[in-house]
Write the structure tokens for this entry.
Amino acid sequence: MTAFAIGVLFTLLVCGWLWLRSRIHVRELEADLMNKLKVEEGFVQRNQRRAEMLHQLVDGIDDGLFIVSPELKVIFVNRGAMRFFQPVSEPVGRTLLECVRDHRIVELVATAAEKGTRMKEEFLVAMSGQSKTIEDRVYSVEVLSLRATMPTEMDGALLMVLRDETDKHALEKIRKDFVANASHELRTPLSIINGYLENLVEGDIETPEEAKRAYTVMKKHGDRLASTVEDLLVISRMESGEHDAVRAEEFDFRACAQDVVHRLSPVIQSKEACVTLDMEEGSAVISGDRYYWDQILFNLVSNALKENLAKGLEVVIRLRQEVESSEIQVRDNGVGIPHADLPFVFKRFYRVARHHSQEIKGTGLGLSIVKRAVEAHRGTITLHSRPGIETVFTIRIPRKGGELANTEGAGQGTPAMLTANG
């Protein structure tokens, strides 16, 4: 073999070795690139999943969240934010004023952006409710700068958090009204009792007749004071969430109603009223707490008697058993309740204004106790009234399985009646 052939062969071998090395290197580079691409793809996917999870979490928050640029344009908004205002299509990119439509909120955000400080304020906003009526809502608006935590493209952005504080303010108002009303109801009889005691101590009451009158008045207002305290304790217990507040057991509803009628018989006779029990034979057993049902019926019947000064009032306590519930009605044919007062009669201390209201004594807690006692039995109470014709309280409570045995005879036979009158 000539030297030339050997040289060519050597050259070919070197070239082949170099080509092979280059192919191996290329494959190594390709493999390394694929690994990097997989790592980057996994990183992107993880970031996407995190972003989606974060977006779902933010959208699930009841509070409204806005991220606003220094120019007061919306960069991000969660789904909950648009509950506070009329929905705007594609809010991102719009001005904050276009989304919230309230200059006071925009001015608060602008001030926070200018000062670079966290700011918080509450606003009374008129909004259209579900029934298309305008209702006042209290919104808490908090604004803080994201300058130190956001990426470059969001430098100087602001986070605005909105909360609906309407219910909190309503509860606070109820608490204040309750304290004020309770204080008034307790102060009035105490003042009268203390006044008579002062007269007795100072010797201003000299004759036995005057002393007897003073003792009678003090006892009357002492009873009123005790009744008010008892009503307040009952309401407190019903709303405390105590597990033993209501002890459900089967009892004879007819006997409960008869006891109430007998307790009220002096008032019934003085009013020449008539209270009738209307119940099917053999189906007067309901499930509940007898103590609270005594109070429910006593408050409903005594309320009807107190609110009607005219004689000859007729009151009917009716029980009908249905497949899954027991229906109790207390009906009277008295003066009734004006339509405007119906939504408020179950509120604490609420009294229907009448021309003879000064003659009727009471705390205004009776119907509030009735409603809470019924709800504690997992029941409902509704009120229907036609002034001068009838007033009907209808209560529905669930029945237990053991009470369904007598439902076959429901609607048959003659209702048994018990009447108390003058």
